[in-house]
Design goal:
Layout: E1 5-12, H1 15-26, E2 29-31, E3 39-42, E4 51-55, E5 63-69, H2 73-82, E6 86-93, E7 99-104, E8 110-115
Parallel strand pairs: 1-4, 5-8
Antiparallel strand pairs: 1-5, 2-3, 3-4, 6-7, 7-8
């Protein structure tokens, strides 16, 4: 399997204000009508990748995170850790069935690996 970047996430200390800014600037539609209240972004285009907005943890700055598709989240986490990554959120199944884990790469950049649920 290739490992494409399939989603972006903006983590913000003020997610509602961030959603308002990008909605006003680009005309994006932001919805939070899902089990976790995740602010899903619809850019209005079939080009590009989907994204969302989530509250940034209190100890971190605002940042953008990429989600990379993998076949085996746990196996990919193990390989990443062997290569020097630090696990932040262990493999977790989300309410809609996607599986994900969040790590820091050896340089301290946050990224996620995900296995989308079959829909």
């Amino acid at each position: 399997m290739a490992h494409p970047v399939i989603q972006f996430q903006i983590l913000s200390k003020e997610p509602d204000a961030t959603a308002g800014f990008y909605s006003d600037l680009f005309g994006w539609t932001v919805r939070a009508d899902n089990p976790m209240g995740y602010r899903q972004i619809d850019t209005g285009s079939k080009e590009g990748i989907p994204g969302g907005i989530w509250p940034a943890p209190p100890q971190s700055p605002n940042f953008v995170q990429l989600f990379v598709a993998v076949d085996d989240v746990a196996g990919s986490v193990k390989k990443a850790e062997e290569l020097g990554a630090k696990l932040l959120i262990p493999p977790t199944t989300l309410p809609e069935g996607d599986e994900m884990a969040v790590l820091l790469d050896p340089q301290g950049m946050s990224f996620a690996m995900t296995r989308p649920a079959k829909r």
